[in-house]
Design brief:
four-stranded antiparallel sheet; 4 strands; single chain; alpha+beta; 3 helices; 24% strand
């Protein structure tokens, strides 16, 4: 054997086509990413799984007040508690008396339909 044939690259035809191998790798990667997404979705859906059947603490409402801060209205028994939640801290903002009305106020009545741009333009042009 000569020096040039000793270190020669193997024949690509002997190992099959590279397109088939790339397809297999791509499909395997998509399968793994899909499995991770499915498991993340499942864990989010089953967050309360195994917590028992009691609903002693219920989240009535929550509102974002900053990039990482939230106000959360909780009902514990018949008492409503407003808490502030921030990274690394939960603090009581207000404790409502038992039986206090903390339901959302009724929605404001719908405003009259405003004219659209086309109608305003035609009116201003006198047509």
């Amino acid at each position: 054997m000569t020096q040039s044939t000793l270190f020669a690259a193997p024949n690509a035809a002997a190992h099959g086509s590279t397109a088939g191998g790339a397809l297999e790798v791509t499909l395997a990667l998509l399968l793994v990413v899909g499995l991770i997404a499915f498991l993340a979705w499942g864990l989010r859906r089953m967050r309360g799984f195994g917590a028992g059947g009691t609903d002693r603490i219920r989240v009535l409402a929550d509102r974002s007040v900053g990039p990482k801060e939230r106000c959360v209205l909780l009902r514990v028994g018949d008492t409503d508690i407003l808490v502030g939640v921030a990274p690394g801290a939960v603090s009581t903002l207000h404790v409502f008396a038992a039986g206090a009305n903390t339901e959302a106020p009724p929605a404001a009545p719908a405003k009259a339909q405003l004219p659209n741009f086309k109608d305003l333009l035609m009116r201003s042009l006198g047509r």
